[in-house]
Design goal:
The protein has about 300 residues and is an alpha+beta fold. It has twelve helices and seven strands. Residues about 305-310 have low confidence and may be disordered.
C-alpha cells in the first residue's frame, strides 16, 4: 500500500513543481542531510540512499555528474573515493527557499493588507522574455490579475523590478496599496489565483499523508520509509506557495485548507527527522566513518526556536 502513497505523492509533485523526479529527490536529500555549508557526502552513500526511492545506482551517478556540470554540486576526491557537496550558490538558494517553508501556512507572518502590483508591457517579438518573467513572478508569489498586471500579497516590488531589469523589460511599474474591484465577476486580488485548484491540491496532499502518518503514530515506519516519507512530502509541500502564497485569510473561505495541510506535513516531516538522520548516518558510516559528522538534519522548529540544523 505504501507504494501507492509514493506514486500519488510523485504525481502530485509533478503538478506543483518543475523538474525530473530523480534530480529533485537527490537535490532534496543533499539539502536535508548535508545542509551545512561545505558538508561532503560520499558518492557511495548517496547511491545507497537513492535506492530507497527506487533510483538505480547508474541513474544516481549520472545525476551526480550532471548536477556537478551544472554547478549545483561540487565534487572532490579522497584517494579513489568521490564526495559531493552543495555548491555555494545552491546552498544559499536552498536555504532561502527553506526559510519560506518554515513560515508558510503557520500564520506567524500575516500578509499585509496592501498588495503589490507589477504592471508591464512586453512586445510580441520578446516572447521569450515574457515567458521567463511570468515564470519568475509565479515563483515569487505573484499571479496575473489581468494581462500585464500581476499581484502579490507581499512587498516584493524590488524583487519583481530586479527580475524585469535582468530580462531587459523596458516598460514596467510597481504599485503598492489597496485594490478595489469594480463589478461582481472578477477583480478582487485573490481572483488572480485558481483557488478551487489550490483547494484540491491541499486536499489531495493531506489525504495522501494519512497512511504514512498512521504508521508514524504507530511506530511502524522503517528507517528507509521514514527517509522516503520525509523527502517525498517536502518535495510536494515546497510547491504550494506557487498556488497560494500565504494569501490573506480575510479574502478566503473560513475552511481554507492551508493550515490543515501544513499541520499534516509538519507532523510527518518533524516526526521522521530523527529516524531519517540515524538512517543516513548509518549508511555514511559504511562508506566513510570520518564523514558521519557532516550529516545533519533540517527542522521546521529547531530547539531554541531559531533556524538551525541538528
Amino acid at each position: 500500500m505504501m507504494r501507492d502513497v509514493w506514486s500519488n505523492l510523485e504525481e502530485l509533485r509533478s503538478e506543483v513543481t518543475d523538474g525530473q523526479r530523480g534530480r529533485s529527490l537527490l537535490v532534496t536529500v543533499m539539502a536535508e542531510y548535508w545542509g551545512e555549508e561545505g558538508a561532503m557526502a560520499p558518492s557511495g552513500a548517496l547511491v545507497d540512499l537513492m535506492s530507497a526511492f527506487d533510483v538505480s545506482a547508474s541513474g544516481t551517478r549520472t545525476l551526480l555528474s550532471r548536477l556537478t556540470r551544472e554547478g549545483r554540486l561540487v565534487a572532490a576526491k579522497e584517494g579513489r573515493r568521490s564526495f559531493y557537496a552543495l555548491s555555494p550558490t545552491a546552498y544559499h538558494r536552498l536555504a532561502e527557499g527553506f526559510e519560506v517553508l518554515r513560515k508558510f501556512g503557520t500564520g506567524l507572518e500575516p500578509a499585509d493588507r496592501e498588495w503589490t502590483m507589477l504592471l508591464f508591457s512586453i512586445p510580441e517579438e520578446q516572447r521569450s522574455a515574457r515567458q521567463q518573467l511570468r515564470k519568475g513572478l509565479s515563483w515569487m508569489g505573484f499571479a496575473p490579475l489581468y494581462d500585464g498586471a500581476w499581484v502579490s500579497s507581499r512587498a516584493r516590488g524590488d524583487q519583481a523590478m530586479s527580475l524585469c531589469r535582468d530580462l531587459g523589460v523596458e516598460a514596467a511599474s510597481v504599485v503598492r496599496g489597496s485594490i478595489t474591484a469594480v463589478g461582481t465577476q472578477f477583480g478582487d486580488p485573490t481572483d488572480a489565483w485558481d483557488l478551487d485548484y489550490a483547494r484540491r491540491l491541499y486536499a489531495s496532499f493531506t489525504a495522501f499523508l494519512e497512511e504514512p502518518l498512521g504508521k508514524l503514530r504507530a511506530d511502524g515506519l522503517t528507517p528507509p520509509e521514514a527517509l522516503r516519507a520525509r523527502t517525498e512530502s517536502i518535495n510536494v509541500f515546497r510547491g504550494f506557495p506557487r498556488f497560494d502564497p500565504d494569501l490573506p485569510l480575510a479574502g478566503l473561505t473560513p475552511d481554507w485548507p492551508r493550515r490543515t495541510a501544513r499541520d499534516a506535513f509538519a507532523e510527518l516531516y518533524e516526526g521522521t527527522a530523527e529516524a531519517s538522520l540515524g538512517y543516513v548516518r548509518s549508511v555514511v558510516q559504511m562508506h566513510s566513518p570520518a564523514h558521519v559528522q557532516d550529516v545533519s538534519v533540517r527542522r521546521l522548529t529547531p530547539a531554541g526556536g531559531s533556524p538551525a540544523s541538528a
